[in-house]
Backbone:
């Protein structure tokens, strides 16, 4: 499957959580450049459930939120 760029993923998922397999990052700034968009949903728990049901646990992946984070909330990542 062809890898999608960060901007392509962001445009497709809107304000949702996205599961990206085989992520490739910039060596210069560490930001996501491209990856294989596998699943996305507004509910993070649905993304987590999708990961837990995956039958190939050796895949490299990242989970990103592509929406605006409200300034009055704190976001913690426990993956």
Residues:
């Amino acid at each position: 499957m062809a890898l999608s760029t960060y901007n392509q993923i962001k445009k497709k998922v809107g304000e949702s959580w996205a599961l990206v397999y085989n992520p490739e990052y910039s060596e210069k700034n560490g930001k996501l450049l491209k990856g294989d968009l596998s699943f996305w949903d507004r509910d993070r728990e649905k993304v987590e459930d999708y990961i837990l049901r995956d039958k190939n646990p050796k895949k490299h992946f990242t989970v990103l939120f592509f929406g605006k984070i409200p300034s009055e909330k704190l976001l913690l990542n426990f993956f």
